[in-house]
Every structure is written in structure tokens, then in C-alpha cells.
Specification:
With about 675 residues, the chain is of the alpha+beta class. Helix content is about 45%, strand content about 15%.
Length: about 675
């Protein structure tokens, strides 16, 4: 046998041995974790199932219809990216009967799967560390392979050897992500080894209640995504579970696969004021002051929260990434509490057209009320309605002809403020209906006959306008009080309450919001009269993006008097709008950026060839720069020289006159006045 043939034979034998060894490790790891439910957890599972059946808004027919999917939802909670369990593993469990097992407190088979996932998680980390230990020979970043994007719609893999191949591709993708952040190969390997060692330590610290909470919340989420069990914890962790809001920087976070993702920013918080952190950004690392940034990929959400939090006035450094191939960016924020002053409504004036016609803009970041000052009898307590009434008076004195209420990114707040604010634009009438589980309907509305603004009105919304914002926008639309412009709103139309139970609390949905027309704001949200392009993918952000969101429905309409029928003028307004935006540099740039974002998000696989990923990033960065420079050229502004200049520009305070959606809303209002000059006053028409 020649040396070459002998070496080939030996290499082949080693490859086979290694594949068998990995498969054995996957099936029966040497340090297998065994997870067993306690008697207390069995009883608690039965109790939670009984309370949900008794008290949840959708406890009857809807849950019965969803029962066949509960088992699959539990599997998704255990292995959301389908990276650990195989088809063979699932054959050991009667998936269809898993909800029945939970209701009987029989958790053994579910816990066994969870334990298997933990063992496979450790096996994957061991495999990654072993691969990295081989240096450059362990990673091949030059071949034309792809990592399929795996989610809950992906098929389960058939064999442990397929898991190993998936893990290899996942490792190569993580390496490429760091190399694209301008790290050397050696630095990349060291960073990944630190990351995976940290993840192993955290995996070994899995708490017993982690398993129970994950399993029971997968069951509870079949009722709706806002229903969950909250285990016993101190008040700090409780607040995280309730709102996921970070008092330190003012952000709402959630876990997505191995990443901590930004869901939204709290108005008036440090992150929102800074302007660089955006919804859907990933938090990759956190550092305190001048200390080194600690990698947090794979960390528990509460651990990331604890790292970001800190004393008011202290500095936190956050490493973020906007997408797989986006550059890593570091931002420095000063921790602070969200101040009422920062959340308060603010006004500005746009001067539009050749005649510089004045259109007032009132931006409302949230619906707020200083309840403490109000209860103390302070006659000057702050609230949304009070502040907007004052701003309307100031705008009227400055001679504005029309008004845009900007509710973009307004996630809601005080329900009372929503309907009292709408009362500033009508004499009297109902604003919202609230229907509870028993079918009882409570109507809230405006009883004050005073009108603070009777002129032309538009409401500007986007996908992050939710809850109280949707109630206000829906009332404007139902009464015909003005136009709703922008994109489809979030669709959060449910009410939750806390129920103390043995060993924790249960947060469950008890009621639903309905518009006075009887239409629900749930799931569907409010559809604008004239749609603008949206920067947010509705498949990723919004109530309808949640698998078990309660459906849209409707109830009986209330009696109310429509004030106008602006929808009758919408076809003509749309024609004028389309003709104008075709040549408006700001709106053309908005359309192009939105279309480009949709193209990038539609990919179903990621290249594992470093050179190709570098080229794709360069193309994407150049595309963004070209779009911005085309806008600047059309407006007679100075061109930007590089993509880094564009990033710096994006972090600056935005100019309202360059806000394409805001300016176009003002123009549409002026078009509406031209079509119907009598808009300055209200006159009731038949419903």
C-alpha cells in the first residue's frame, strides 16, 4: 500500500470514527443531565391549567381549537431554532396529548425532552470549542455553503449527524459575523471561545424553575401571547417579567434564539434620546464604564438586564448589531430614569408649499398622567390631555391652518388619557368599548362639551403605535374627525390582569378593546386611510407576528354621530399624494430604503463564504449611501463621502422638515382643505 493510499485510508477511518463519536456524544453525553419534575410542580401545573380555563377571555372554543397545536408549541419553546431535537426524539413523546399531560400534572415526558435539549446544548458547545481548538483548520470559510435560516416552520432533522452539520454551519456563521466586525482570525477565535465557555457555565446553572416556567408558559401561550406564569422573584425581576423595561437605558427587550433583541424604546429614556439604538437591534455585549465589553450572546434575558442596569448617572457601553452582516457598533449611554418631562407632548410648526402655509405638529410619545400629583390635589399636575390643550392654544395663536398628531412609536399608556385627549376634538360622545370574558361591555368616552381644536386633523401612526394610540386613531377614523395616515398599527387590543396563585402569579388576558364602530383593535390594529411605506416588517413586529395572538372580531356598534366622511375624498387625495411623492426626494429615499430592507429580510439562507459576505456587506452599505446621496443631490445638499459618515448622520437629531412621512402628512391635510374648504368647522352628518 502506498503512503498516499495509506494516509487516505487512515483519514477515512478517522472521519468515520469521529462521526460515530459525535453521534454517540449526541445520543448519550458523558455528563447527561436528568431533569425530573417535583410534586409541587405537578400540582402547580394542574392549578394553572384550571385557572386559565376558568378565567381567561378565550378559555372556551378558541383554546379547544388550538389544543392540537399546544404540543408543537411546547416543542418550539424547548428548541425554537430546531437545533437540538430530532424526529427520532419526538417519536418518544405523544405530542398531541401533551396538553392533557400538563392538565393532569404528568410532566415527565416533557422534562425528559427538556433535559435532552440541555445535553445537546452542552454537546454543541463542546463541539464548537473542540473545532475552534484546531485553529484555522477547523473552519472552512471559502466554500460555497449556506446556513438555512431555521425557525418554527423548519422541519425537524432526522439524525444526530445532521445536527452536527447544522452546528458546524452555525459556528462558521458566528465566526464570519465577528470577522465582518473587523476582528482578526485569532481575536475571533478567542472571542468565540470566551463566549462558549460563558454559555457552558450558564447552562450548568439552569435552575429547576427555569424548566417548569418554560414548559408551563408554552402551554399558557396557547391562550394568547400575553398570558404567562410568573415564578416567585424579587420585585426587580418581577418588573422585568412584567414589562421587560430597563430603567437604566429605557428599552424593551426580549430573547430571540441566542440573542437579546430590542423590541422598542421607552419614550424619554436614555436610548430613545440618544437615537442610535433601534427596534430589532441585537445586543451582543455590555461593558461598565471603561471596563472591557462582556459578550452576552446566549445569556439569559434577566442576566443581560442586570448587566445593563446600574445607578443613575453611571455609564454603560453596549455593543449592538442591526442584522447578520451589519457592522458591530458600540454606543455609550448614561443611565437615567425616564422623566415625565421627556415623555411629554411637544409641538412644532411646518411651513409647507410656496405660500409657507403653517401646519402644526403635536408629537405624543406616550399617554401619561402624573397620578401622584393628581391624587395629592396639585392643580398643575401634568397629563397628556392637559399638555396638548395648552399646545393647541399656542399653535392657534401662531396661526396654524391644520394639525398633525404624531403617534408614531407611541406604545400606549393611560387609557383614560386616550379618550380624554380625543375629547379635545369633539363635543361629547363614546370613544372606546371594553368587553370582558362574560360578555359585559363597558363604554368610556368624553363628557366635556369643550372643543380645543375644530380644524383639519390628521393622525400619523406606524407599526409601533399600540394600545391607547390605536384607541385614539380608531376614534378619529370612526367619527370621521380626520385622516389616519402611515402604516398599520401594532394590533394590541387586549387587557391583562395579575392573579396571585400558589408559588407565583398568573398574568392573563381578561378583556378586549373595541372601537365605537364595534371593530376590534386586536390583531388587525388600525388600518390607515392612506398608507405610507413602513420600516418595520409586520411579520416580525406587531401582534399579528405572534403565533397565538387573539383573532380580530367585532361587536355591536354604538350610536354616534359622524362629523365628516373624509374617506370619500381619499381616492382623490391618494392621486395627489402619489403624483407628489414620485418626485419628492425625501419620500423617494424612504421608499427605496424600505424596499431594500424588504429584499434583505426575505433571504432564507446565509452564505458561509467570507468573501461573499464581505462583498454583500459592501454592496448593502454602498446601496444605502447611494440612496442618501441621491436624496442630497436632489435637495442641493453636500454629498456624504462614506458609509461611516451616513451612520454618524443617522445618529444626529432629525430635522422635522426632512421627515418624509411627517411632511407628506401635512401636505395631504392641505390637499384636503383645498378639496373641502369647510373643514375648519365641525358639522354632524348622519352615521
Amino acid at each position: 500500500m502506498t503512503d498516499k493510499l495509506r494516509n487516505q485510508t487512515l483519514w477515512h477511518a478517522l472521519s468515520i470514527f469521529r462521526a460515530i463519536a459525535i453521534s454517540v456524544m449526541l445520543i448519550a453525553p458523558s455528563h447527561a443531565v436528568v431533569v425530573e419534575p417535583s410534586n409541587a410542580e405537578r400540582r402547580l401545573a394542574q392549578l394553572i391549567a384550571e385557572e386559565l380555563d376558568r378565567r381567561h377571555l378565550a378559555s372556551d372554543a378558541l383554546f379547544d381549537a388550538r389544543r392540537p397545536m399546544v404540543g408543537e408549541m411546547i416543542l418550539n419553546a424547548i428548541d425554537p431554532s430546531r437545533s437540538f431535537l430530532t424526529q427520532a426524539d419526538l417519536q418518544t413523546v405523544d405530542v398531541i396529548r401533551l396538553p392533557d399531560a400538563i392538565e393532569r400534572g404528568q410532566l415527565e415526558s416533557i422534562y425528559r425532552l427538556y433535559g435532552l435539549m440541555l445535553n445537546r446544548s452542552e454537546a454543541r458547545l463542546d463541539y464548537w470549542l473542540e473545532t475552534l481548538g484546531r485553529g484555522e483548520s477547523g473552519l472552512n470559510l471559502t466554500d460555497d455553503e449556506y446556513l438555512p435560516i431555521r425557525d418554527r416552520e423548519s422541519p425537524w432533522l432526522n439524525h444526530p449527524s445532521e445536527l452536527e452539520d447544522l452546528w458546524r454551519r452555525q459556528l462558521e456563521n458566528q465566526a464570519i459575523n465577528l470577522l465582518l466586525a473587523d476582528r482578526s482570525f485569532d481575536d475571533t477565535v478567542k472571542a468565540l471561545i470566551r463566549r462558549f465557555d460563558s454559555q457552558k457555565n450558564r447552562l450548568e446553572q439552569t435552575r429547576p424553575d427555569d424548566v417548569f416556567t418554560a414548559v408551563i408558559n408554552a402551554y399558557a401561550s396557547a391562550y394568547d401571547p400575553h398570558t404567562s406564569y410568573l415564578p416567585p422573584a424579587d420585585s426587580e425581576t418581577f418588573n422585568i417579567n412584567m414589562s421587560l423595561s430597563l430603567q437604566g437605558i429605557g428599552a424593551v427587550l426580549q430573547t430571540e434564539d441566542e440573542f437579546t433583541k430590542v423590541v422598542s424604546l421607552i419614550p424619554g429614556g436614555p436610548a430613545e434620546r440618544d437615537g442610535r439604538l433601534k427596534p430589532a437591534d441585537r445586543i451582543l455585549g455590555v461593558g461598565q464604564g471603561d471596563a472591557a465589553i462582556e459578550d452576552v450572546v446566549g445569556w439569559r434575558l434577566d442576566e443581560v438586564v442586570q448587566l445593563i442596569r446600574g445607578p443613575k448617572g453611571s455609564q454603560v457601553r453596549i455593543e449592538i448589531q442591526s442584522g447578520d452582516d451589519a457592522p458591530h457598533r458600540e454606543i455609550v449611554l448614561i443611565r437615567d430614569r425616564v422623566q415625565l418631562e421627556e415623555q411629554s407632548a411637544k409641538s412644532t410648526i411646518l411651513e409647507i408649499g410656496p405660500d409657507n402655509e403653517k401646519v402644526g405638529v403635536i408629537t405624543i410619545p406616550t399617554f401619561y398622567s402624573d397620578f401622584t400629583a393628581k391624587q395629592a390635589g396639585d392643580p398643575n399636575y401634568r397629563s397628556t390631555t392637559r399638555d396638548v390643550r395648552r399646545l393647541l392654544g399656542e399653535l392657534r395663536e401662531q396661526g396654524v391652518e391644520a394639525l398633525v398628531v404624531d403617534l408614531r412609536n407611541n406604545g400606549g399608556g393611560s387609557l383614560q388619557e386616550a379618550y380624554e385627549l380625543f375629547g379635545l376634538f369633539i363635543t361629547q360622545g363614546p370613544v372606546v368599548q371594553i368587553q370582558s370574558a362574560g360578555g359585559r361591555t363597558d363604554v368610556r368616552g368624553d363628557r366635556d362639551p369643550e372643543i380645543a381644536w375644530d380644524g383639519p386633523l390628521a393622525v400619523l401612526v406606524n407599526r409601533l403605535s399600540a394600545s391607547a394610540s390605536e384607541i385614539f386613531a380608531g376614534a378619529v377614523q370612526d367619527y370621521g374627525r380626520g385622516l389616519v395616515l402611515g402604516s398599520q398599527t401594532f394590533g394590541k387590543g387586549t387587557v391583562q390582569a395579575l392573579l396571585p396563585i400558589e408559588n407565583g402569579q398568573l398574568k392573563l388576558t381578561i378583556a378586549k378593546f373595541y372601537r365605537i364602530s364595534g371593530l376590534s383593535t386586536q390583531h388587525q390594529g388600525v388600518m390607515p386611510d392612506i398608507a405610507f411605506p413602513s420600516a418595520f416588517d409586520p411579520n416580525e413586529i406587531g401582534e399579528s407576528a405572534l403565533d397565538t395572538a387573539l383573532p380580530w372580531d367585532q361587536i355591536r356598534s354604538l350610536r354616534y354621530n359622524r362629523l365628516d366622511v373624509p374617506q370619500a375624498r381619499v381616492p382623490l387625495l391618494v392621486d395627489q399624494h402619489q403624483a407628489r411623492i414620485a418626485t419628492d426626494p425625501n419620500f423617494v429615499a424612504l421608499l427605496e430604503r424600505t424596499e431594500r430592507a424588504r429584499e434583505l429580510s426575505s433571504a432564507d439562507a446565509i452564505s458561509l463564504r467570507l468573501e461573499q459576505r464581505q462583498r454583500e456587506r459592501e454592496i448593502n452599505n454602498q446601496s444605502a449611501l447611494d440612496i442618501e446621496n441621491a436624496r442630497r443631490l436632489a435637495l442641493g445638499l453636500e454629498r456624504l463621502g462614506s458609509f461611516s459618515d451616513l451612520e454618524t448622520e443617522d445618529a444626529n437629531d432629525p430635522d422635522p422638515n426632512e421627515d418624509a412621512s411627517l411632511v407628506e402628512s401635512a401636505r395631504i391635510l392641505l390637499d384636503d382643505i383645498a378639496i373641502n374648504p369647510r373643514l375648519a368647522g365641525l358639522s354632524a352628518v348622519a352615521p
